[in-house]
Write a structure and sequence with these properties.
By secondary structure, the protein is α+β, with helices and mostly antiparallel strands. It is built from five helices and five strands. The mean pLDDT is 97.
């Protein structure tokens, strides 16, 4: 997979809203709420142009029964994909456009982890810029190696997550 990091694009908000509407139609009353997270949800930050979406649902065990509907929208269902009690879907193949991470609404540990980083970066633009610049530099260094790109930002992300969770719980 090619690694492309671009300047912030306000269209990402609309892309999220459009896709969230489709997801609400698929999952219906099972959806509690839908969050836009990840770098495309942070104004001004450089990011891979992939929209990260986190629907929160009433019962995570029911989600696998919607795989055919998600496939009809172009998603690849990947089950938990390394995170217990999550259902993960991706769209776009090699030219990925969306990631959907579904959690049960009361899975506070995982949900807070994602929302804390998003909210922290929104409130701390200097940290957001550092993160965006790191991603841009790694994309230039490893344009065809997503694993090296991910490895290159791992330490920064772990420290960011720790700071963000502390801030999130004490705000």
């Amino acid at each position: 997979m090619n690694v492309i990091v671009t300047d912030y694009n306000e269209q990402w908000i609309e892309n999220f809203k459009d896709e969230a509407k489709k997801l609400k139609e698929v999952f219906g009353s099972e959806i509690v709420e839908v969050h836009h997270f990840g770098s495309t949800s942070v104004p001004g930050i450089k990011a891979k142009p992939i929209i990260d979406i986190m629907p929160l649902v009433k019962d995570i065990e029911k989600i696998d029964s919607f795989n055919h509907e998600m496939m009809a929208l172009g998603y690849e269902p990947l089950g938990e994909y390394g995170i217990k009690e999550r259902r993960y879907f991706r769209k776009g193949g090699e030219n990925r456009t969306h990631h959907v991470h579904i959690f049960q609404f009361d899975n506070d540990e995982e949900v807070d982890r994602y929302l804390a980083v998003r909210d922290y970066l929104r409130k701390h633009p200097k940290e957001a810029k550092l993160y965006g610049d790191l991603k841009e530099n790694l994309a230039w260094e490893f344009p065809n190696d997503i694993e090296a790109y991910m490895d290159g930002k791992d330490k920064f992300v772990k420290e960011l997550e720790k700071k963000a969770l502390h801030w999130y719980k004490n705000r």
